[in-house]
Design goal:
With 191 residues, this protein is mostly helical. It folds into 2 domains: 1-55, Arc Repressor Mutant, subunit A (Orthogonal Bundle), CATH 1.10.10.60; 56-188, Tetracycline Repressor, domain 2. The chain has 10 helices and no strands. Helix 5 packs antiparallel against helix 10 and helix 8 (120-138) crosses helix 9. The longest helix is centred in the N-terminal third of the chain and has 25 residues, at 3-27. The chain is globular, with a radius of gyration of 18 Å. The mean pLDDT is 90. This is HTH-type transcriptional repressor Bm3R1. Residues 33-52 bind DNA. InterPro entries: DNA-bd_HTH_TetR-type_CS, Homeodomain-like_sf, HTH-type_TetR-like_transc_reg, HTH_TetR, Tet_transcr_reg_TetR-rel_C_sf, TetR_C_44. Residues 10-70 form the HTH tetR-type domain.
């Protein structure tokens, strides 16, 4: 596929996502149909389904964007704690800059579907966290008697719990502060 075709596909996918989020915010997830989204994005239904297998899969795209930001934030230097904080801060910054999609995901009660911890996207996130924790073990920063998979899953689940509560109750602490507290608690158990 040429670069031009790839860019056009990416723009179409982004337009579908943007229009879907706008409609979800206006009407609520359940009141919006695929036909509504395709009309707003000025595309055919076939084009929608080329990019998203279902209406709920629009939220997976949100997850892909956040995971990309998180992975890009891990530049590989620093302690395990510094690296994890950078990743979670990057996620918080992105989500706080785009709060409505996260809130719509929680309101639609499809957050659990967007997690799908077996998806490639979530496996990448979990693997990055596990790699950082393994480096922390190797350096002596973190203890090694806790199963690595369980520790990585604790960080990942803490992240999702914070996003859910922040999206549902935005008037409290910032997402960044919630994530920092969650990571403090988890790391205290791993030191």
């Amino acid at each position: 596929m040429s670069d031009r075709v790839s860019r056009r596909r990416a723009r179409t996918r982004e337009r579908i996502f943007t229009e879907a989020m706008r409609l979800f915010a206006e009407r609520g997830f359940d009141a919006v149909t695929v036909a509504d989204i395709t009309e707003a994005a000025d595309i055919g239904k076939g084009t929608f389904f080329t990019h998203f297998p279902s209406k709920r899969d629009v939220f997976r795209y949100l997850g892909e964007q956040v995971v990309r930001v998180v992975l890009d934030a891990d530049v590989g230097d620093g302690t395990a704690e510094e690296r994890l904080r950078r990743m979670l801060d990057a996620a918080a910054d992105w989500l706080e800059a785009h709060p409505e999609p996260a809130r719509q995901m929680v309101k639609a009660r499809s957050f659990n579907l967007s997690l799908d911890l077996g998806s490639e996207n979530q496996k990448r996130f979990n693997a990055a966290v596990a790699d950082i924790l393994a480096a922390g073990r190797s350096s002596g920063e973190l203890r090694d008697d806790v199963p690595l998979g369980a520790a990585a899953l604790a960080v990942q689940c803490g992240y999702y719990a914070c996003v859910m509560t922040w999206a549902a109750h935005p008037d409290g602490e910032t997402l960044r502060d919630r994530l920092a507290t969650s990571l403090d608690i988890i790391l205290n158990g791993l030191k």
